[in-house]
Amino acid sequence: MDRYEPKNREQIEFLERSNKLFEDLDKIAVTNFGLSFFESIVRLLAEFIPANSIYFGQIRNKKLSTLATMIQGEISSNYQYAIKKELLVEILEKEELLIEENISESFRDDKLLQDAIAKSGYGIALKENNKNIGVIIILSNQKLNITDEIKSIVNRVALKVSAEIKRREIVRKLAASERKLKQSNTLKNKLFSIISHDLKNSFNNITLISDSMMLDYKSNDFHDFPNQIEMMSKSAIQASELLENILEWSVEQLKGKEFKQENIDLLDVFTATLSKLNHLAEQKGISVKADIELSTKLFADRNMLETILRNLITNAIKFTNNGGEIVVSARPTKNHNYHEISVTDNGVGIPEDKADSIFDNDEIYSTRGTENEKGTGLGLMLCKEFVEKHEGEIWVESEINKGTSFKFTLPSAI
88, 95, 118, 176: most buried by Cβ count inside 10 Å? Predict the structure, then answer.
């Protein structure tokens, strides 16, 4: 960005006026960061440019979000421009762009901007270490005259906006790091509890039952063998499930589980996962069905998806009564960029106060199933971590005595 040098008295006055306004803005910035900071800069810029619309946007994870916008004098931090992708890409590629053609077409889906009847515009890319972090777009119902003076002001504004975006990102990452550390400590304490209590109890049960069976065998008393074998099987299954989740969680926390996204067939992953869980469903006479189109493909890590489905289906089996039904379904979202997958049962349901905090790492939800099956809540934490690695979302909808539906989104195949 070139530094503007004034050449005559008028330009000197212009620079002095702009410097005064920037000094005032700096004073505000010392104590007033955040969205109101961006709104202040929008007001400042509007004093220098005959614009009926000014937009500041941030780019993160390839998505454009509003920092502040002004349309016909009204300033907001919530209004999102409906800008065509082609125009945004052109601004980012050229770094600055005078927009004089197809203004209406570029904002055809934005009614407010259509009403403003923009005739010309100016866009500038915001960068940090050659990476696109945002954009400024100025629209006017007059033909914009982007002089050296105006460019100087816009460039200084761009530097300030870029600096604030960077500062906000640092704060956001620090807060996320602090939150993750707190969650990690919570889960670590929970893990030690599982190892010292739940896992130990499972193996103790297996040892006690096998000792009892050995004594019965020596005395030729076999009448209780079927019941003992069933109890041993349940303890072994519980221990196996715990170990699998503990190992996956440990790998994820210590060095990060390998994350390899690829185009995969959801029905194929569901079938492979169900084959490992059929015995649990059959013990309770529960049917597990798929409502998934044959063509459903996701861009996901196969192992993580299997873990998510395994834990959610296992949970559904635990909390569904004998003879119940579980349905795994998938539907594309409105923009088709993601698929919404749900695991729905007609079981006992989850109390509303627990459902609201079930994915809160500060409070791990755990309760016993309909056949007194033991749960730890660790599986749901894994599901949340793995879904969020795909930049998806996970939530639960439930009604007592009617059933529960765990839903999550993953990227569609590319």
Answer: 118
The pTM of this model reads: 0.51
Q: Which of 77-91, 146-160, 185-199, 302-316 has the lowest mean pLDDT?
A: 185-199
Q: Are 129 and 123 in contact (CB under 8 A)?
A: no
- pLDDT over threshold 50, residue 85: yes
Over 80: is that where the pLDDT of 405 sits? yes
Asked if residue 263 has pLDDT above 90, the reply is: yes
Res 377 pLDDT > 80: no
Q: Helix/strand/coil (H, E, C) string of the chain?
A: CCCCCCCCHHHHHHHHHHHHHHHHHHHHHHHCCCHHHHHHHHHHHHHHCCCCEEEEEEEECCEEEEEEEEECCEEECCCCCCCCHHHHHHHHHHCEEEECCCHHHHCCCCHHHHHHCCCEEEEEEEEECCEEEEEEEEEECCCCCCCHHHHHHHHHHHHHHHHHHHHHHHHHHHHHHHHHHHHHHHHHHHHHHHHHHHHHHHHHHHHHHHHHHHHHHHCCCCCCHHHHHHHHHHHHHHHHHHHHHHHHHHHHHHCCCCCCCEEEEHHHHHHHHHHCCHHHHHHCCCEEEEECCCCCEEEECHHHHHHHHHHHHHHHHHCCCCCCEEEEEEEECCCCCEEEEEEEECCCCCCHHHHCCCCCCCCCCCCCCCCCCCCCCHHHHHHHHHHHHCCCCEEEEEECCCEEEEEEEEEECC
Q: Which of 66-75, 238-247, 350-359, 370-379 has the lowest mean pLDDT?
A: 370-379
Q: Give the confidence band of 1 by pLDDT, cuts at 50, 70, 90.
A: very low
Q: How many residues does the chain have?
A: 414
Q: Give the residue from 272, 259, 242, 278 showing the smallest Cα distance to 411.
A: 259
Q: How far apart are CA 43 and CA 54, in angstroms?
A: 9
